[in-house]
Amino acid sequence: MAKRNQTIISEFLLLGLPIQPEHQNLFYALFLAMYVTTLLGNLLIMFLIRLDPHLHTPMYLFLSNLSFSDLCFSSVTMPKLLQNMKSHALSIPSAGCLAQMYFYLFFGVLESFLLVAMAYDRYVAICFPLRYAAIMSPRLCLSLLALSWVLTTAHATLHTLLTARLSFCADNVIPHFFCDTSTLLKLSCSDTRVNGLVILFIGGLILVIPFLLIVMSYARIVSSILKVPSARGIRKAFSTCGSHLSMVSLFYGTIIGLYLCPSTNNSTVKETVLAVMYTVVTPMLNPFIYSLRNRDMKRALGRVFWKKKISFSLKQ
């Protein structure tokens, strides 16, 4: 009898952000500007790394992949959010919802693995400077990237397949601006215990292990610096690791606030704000962190535009 009363859900409704109607246009312009800034900033970093031979190093290989990941991660949720805010088309097909969930998990976790690879690169550069070229060989760098992409694909595929097998009954309203895994589980009328256990175990490993590896890398860096303390060494370490530490703080700070510090009061509003920080603000700030705090990127920008200026002058 219960099965006969179940309705097959072909689409979901995304409620979006809790914004008053009179403020919709203002926030639409704000989010559109942030999304365009994210696209242009990350494309610029990828463009500079591709064109400038001085940036063809392991660190910038990882950074170009990180910029690509940030660009795609923001593009998973922002176009649909902007469409909903402008046209109030809240519906999303169930297949589209699963696809959005897959790519959200994919690019979110990929960033975590890439941050680990960048932390290891900084550890080798500071603790073993004379052996850096031998250790961070092209083969090792490509292996780290391939491992990151393979593990990320497996993780996102597992969660998507487990969610796809669930049944959804009458309630198809998602109180969020994208198809979040935990929100979909709450709407399901199936047994979600397996999904919950997988999220708790695999999700915990995916978040905790990369974070611990980053902490271990920087603990070794600090230990190496303290063995031979000098103002020059400290400045070099800070200039080398400062940008990466800022990115790690932004990335894991929002994750800890979102998943490890739950709030009973206004939890929906808090989760939405932190999700915006995680999916919109962080990918936008990463290019600024690297372009404003990194001398190599500033010099590369100058070299590329100087070459373009000379080339344009010669053509005239």
TrEMBL record:
The keyword Glycosyltransferase does not apply. SUPFAM superfamilies: Family A G protein-coupled receptor-like (SSF81321). Coiled coil: none annotated. InterPro entries: GPCR_Rhodpsn, GPCR_Rhodpsn_7TM, Olfact_rcpt. The chain crosses the membrane at residues 26-48, 101-120, 140-158, 194-216, 237-260, 272-292. It is a multi-pass membrane protein. It is found in: Cell membrane; Membrane. Putative odorant or sperm cell receptor. Belongs to the G-protein coupled receptor 1 family. This is Olfactory receptor. It comes from Rangifer tarandus platyrhynchus.
